Backbone:
């Protein structure tokens, strides 16, 4: 097995690390760099984005013809981990949720005309986007088959009626991907649509208050009352909505994990720095066995997470859906991020609980990780289903094909 990364990927990783150290990390201690929802201020962000583009560190996850660098999922894993050493990092490089997942699914599924109209402005950083799927009870959440929002065909248009909530980024988004029901067919009953913020027939009811901090645009509740979407704005074909969600959510879950690795490592970094400086009862905290065991365990858990993420990224690059690999990475990393923040706060004591470090920001952010893109319990059910279907083959290594004509 080859665990080496290509020199090109290492070059991007190194340059991203330098950019984050030089341009992004200093802003975390500058109160004026934050917006009202505890994320990076948009005016500050625009300046950083311009610098990142000028240094060729923009949209690395996309194909060159789309405006990216075509790194693939393995390359993304290396670079996204480095980006999220800072709480502000990913969005600076146009690699933050939800635009990241939306761009990748549009790149794969949209027609050339749709890419020009809906994808290109996101790639260029001119607009933000949102993925509109989750509904309040009794509608669809982790189970899309429960979806109640409907899309009724009338002539050359679809009329949308229903409610959605916890729609990330909606308050700042201009381009939206909406999933709605077009029939009762179990597999082909959902359809994905593209619509613009300025179209009539829908509204944001509220920006849902959360524990925070928030992504740009928050998490919103939306209502649709006769939103009309031209049939030409169907993504793929009628009935392919479930396919679109699978294309988008699998890779998007894994990119969350890539970014969470960076935040987990940052927690260890902050904890180790403080433990190396703080003396109590005649010795450094870093010399205490209890502290060394805490940090050593975190180091091991982070490396386990990196291996899970890399295996899933490799599988996606090979053309697999990597469902069980992504689920394992998602569960592990969601819990690890919370543990890393909690342990680092414990080591820092009252300082960690204050806003003198980023630890309390990461701690509050981390709690959502076990919920977004599928709760822990849902992913464990997915793993058990694979185990039931595959038995001992669940743990089978993929076997390389021998070259033809080999003697």
Residues:
């Amino acid at each position: 097995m080859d665990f080496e990364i290509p020199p090109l990927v290492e070059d991007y990783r190194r340059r991203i690390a330098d950019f984050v150290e030089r341009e992004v990390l200093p802003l975390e201690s500058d109160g004026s760099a934050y917006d009202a929802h505890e994320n990076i201020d948009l005016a500050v962000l625009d300046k950083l984005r311009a610098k990142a583009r000028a240094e060729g560190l923009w949209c690395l996850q996309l194909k060159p013809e789309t405006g990216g660098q075509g790194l693939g999922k393995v390359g993304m894993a290396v670079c996204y981990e480095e980006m999220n050493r800072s709480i502000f990092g990913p969005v600076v490089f146009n690699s933050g949720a939800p635009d990241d997942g939306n761009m990748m699914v549009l790149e794969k599924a949209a027609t050339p005309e749709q890419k020009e109209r809906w994808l290109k402005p996101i790639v260029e950083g001119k607009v933000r986007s949102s993925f509109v799927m989750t509904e309040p009870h009794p509608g669809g959440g982790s189970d899309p088959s429960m979806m109640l929002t409907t899309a009724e065909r009338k002539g050359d248009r679809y009329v949308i009626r229903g409610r959605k909530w916890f729609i990330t980024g909606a308050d700042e988004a201009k381009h939206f991907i909406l999933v709605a029901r077009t029939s009762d067919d179990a597999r082909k009953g959902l359809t994905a649509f593209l619509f613009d913020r300025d179209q009539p027939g829908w509204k944001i009811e509220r920006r849902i208050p959360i524990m925070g901090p928030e992504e740009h645009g928050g998490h919103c509740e939306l209502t649709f009352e006769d939103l009309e979407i031209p049939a030409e704005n169907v993504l793929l074909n009628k009935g392919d909505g479930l396919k679109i969600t699978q294309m988008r959510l699998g890779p998007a879950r894994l990119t969350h994990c890539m970014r969470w690795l960076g935040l987990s490592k940052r927690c260890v970094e902050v904890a180790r720095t403080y433990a190396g400086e703080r003396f109590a009862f005649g010795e450094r905290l870093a010399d205490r066995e209890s502290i060394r065991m805490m940090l050593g365990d975190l180091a091991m858990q982070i490396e386990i997470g990196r291996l899970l993420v890399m295996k899933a990224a490799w599988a996606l690059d090979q053309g697999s859906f990597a469902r069980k690999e992504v689920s394992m990475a998602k569960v592990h990393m969601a819990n690890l991020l919370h543990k890393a923040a909690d342990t680092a706060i414990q080591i820092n004591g009252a300082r960690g609980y204050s806003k003198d470090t980023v630890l309390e920001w990461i701690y509050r952010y981390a709690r959502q990780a076990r919920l977004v893109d599928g709760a822990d319990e849902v992913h464990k059910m997915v793993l058990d289903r694979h185990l039931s279907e595959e038995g001992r083959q669940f743990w089978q290594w993929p076997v390389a094909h021998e070259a033809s004509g080999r003697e």
Observations:
- The CA atoms of residues 295 and 367 lie 21 Å apart.
- Strands lie at 129-132, 150-154, 157-168, 175-181, 190-196, 202-207, 219-230, 234-235, 279-280, 283-284.
- The longest strand covers residues 157-168.
- The chain has three domains: 7-98, 129-239, 243-393.
